[in-house]
């Protein structure tokens, strides 16, 4: 059971949320997306949100600012979140404008809002689940895409709800979060996407 719960936490780690949303968009959209447009978004987003954060984490761990990938304490979460905020901002201001996709643009704007809200809460000693924040954002983005393009992805959304439940159970299993922290994280993720959807839906 422990191995399964650990696998769930790692497979659905929040670090994969930005690139997962990008892939999901190009899979779902009925719009014609040339290879240049897809690669122009996917490759730099993958580098900025997966490769660089992993390298940054290793550096922070080496200098003693963080001690575990779960970032269990409020202090350990601040630096990675600030770095993540900078990287997301680079995507919004530098990457997407070169290969503009309005849906992806506001998806990342919402991720910035969610990250900023999570960071602000840390200064009030309130820790929220980054796993649930990320999954909540991705889930709401998929719902919005389904409505926007009038495509039925009910089955995929049902599976995603199951995944959210499994991840929440995993975080509780390892005592990484309380139920309230999971709820706060999920709410931040969902609300951030809802607040920006009116600009493109």
Blueprint of the fold:
Blueprint: H1 2-11, H2 17-28, H3 35-63, H4 74-95, H5 102-122, H6 130-149, H7 154-173, H8 179-197
Helix pairs in contact: 1-7, 2-3, 2-5, 2-6, 3-4, 4-5, 5-6, 5-8, 6-7, 6-8
Q: What is the beta-strand fraction?
A: under 5%
Radius of gyration (CA) equals: 16 Å
Shape: globular
Helix content: over 70%
Domains, number = 1
| Separation of the first and last Cα atoms | 41 Å
Q: Segments where pLDDT lies below 50 for 5+ residues? A: none
Structural class: mainly alpha
Count of strand segments? 0
Give, in order, the helices and strands: HHHHHHHH
Main sheet makeup: none
- Average pLDDT works out at 93
The total of helices stands at 8
Brief synopsis:
The chain has helices spanning 2-11, 17-28, 35-63, 74-95, 102-122, 130-149, 154-173, 179-197. It is mainly α and 201 residues long.
Descriptive report:
The chain has 201 residues and is mainly α. It is 76% helix and 0% strand. It has one domain. It contains 8 helices and no strands. It starts with a helix and ends with a helix.
